[in-house]
Design a protein that fits this description.
It contains two helices and 15 strands. The protein is mostly beta strands. The chain has a single domain, classed as Jelly Rolls (Sandwich). InterPro entries: RmlC-like (IPR000888), RmlC-like_jellyroll (IPR014710), RmlC_Cupin_sf (IPR011051).
């Protein structure tokens, strides 16, 4: 398993090994001991999967606040996404900073988005499937969102604004300035 810490060191890119032959491939996509060795020592309690039929679908920027703060281990099993993690931990030296990585069925990488981070992605191809493990159960009352193109964050998305497909909820999400105090850095 290849492990790479990104510009925000708490965000980790993990690439499991694939063993291929004439039948296809086999991959151990999650191993608790190897994740602990990589610095991801937190139990997962829920798995989610999404399908986006159009290129340009933006899902996010989302998080959950206490008592259901979530960390996510995200992977793309079909198609490709550009996955973004934004530090929303008040007092963190990287507060308001973002990192991104392309996840695809070809590169087989996974992104660890720790608790206290906003998360979102854009699909780079049609019929893209994303799966992610969560460290806390979904709780609607704890859910928060920030608008995907918030000028306070300055995220450089790999698509034009005219290509973006958003849910009604994500179209009206607030700016990042409203996130202060959602999480404390420790």
């Amino acid at each position: 398993m290849k492990v790479e810490r990104l510009a925000i060191p708490d965000v980790i890119l993990v690439t499991p090994q694939r063993f291929s032959d004439s039948r296809g491939f086999f991959s151990e996509t999650y191993n608790q001991q190897k994740m602990i060795e990589a610095g991801i020592d937190i139990p997962f309690v829920q798995d989610n999967q999404s399908l986006s039929v159009q290129k340009g679908v933006v899902r996010g920027l989302h998080c959950q606040v206490a008592p259901y703060v979530q960390g996510k281990l995200v992977r793309c099993t079909k198609g490709a996404i550009w996955d973004v993690a934004i530090d929303a931990r008040t007092g963190s030296p990287t507060y308001g900073k973002w990192v991104a990585a392309e996840l695809s069925e070809e590169n087989w990488s996974q992104l660890w988005v720790p608790p206290g981070f906003l998360h979102g992605f854009v699909t780079l191809r049609e019929n893209t499937e994303v799966q992610y493990k969560c460290t806390s159960l979904y709780d609607k009352a704890s859910e928060r969102a920030v608008i995907w193109n918030c000028p306070h964050l300055g995220i450089t998305w790999p698509i034009g604004e005219d290509e973006v497909v958003l849910s009604d909820k994500d179209k009206v999400a607030p700016h990042f300035t409203e996130a202060r105090g959602w999480f404390e850095y420790s």
